[in-house]
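re: ur question from yesterday

yeah so i grabbed the chain u mentioned. its 94 aa long if i counted rite. heres the sequnce exactly as i have it in my notes:
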Amino acid sequence: MDENRLEGTARNLGGKIEEQVGRATGDTKIRAEGLLNQAAGAAQDVYGQTADVARQTATTLDAWLRNSIETQPYTTAVVALGIGWLLGRLHRPL
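ran it thru and got these structure tokens back, copy pasting raw so excuse formatting
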């Protein structure tokens, strides 16, 4: 689990508490700060979730690529050569 998820959840919870204190005391400034902390905490939590998914996807892609290279080395070499040829053709006209 990404540390941003933990920090975001904690900040969101602190913002909720701060909002309730502001609501109970009638202090609009504390209540607004609580709402702001909730929004920032939610955004940080979403960022952490996105980082977790990206990390998992990269791991899955790496495993798939390694498996493809190990099980089909000739096909992989031909595909790599084709990609290299196409990239080379981008730099000079036909």
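noticed a couple things. The mean pLDDT is 91. also The chain has one domain: 3-90.
anyway ttyl
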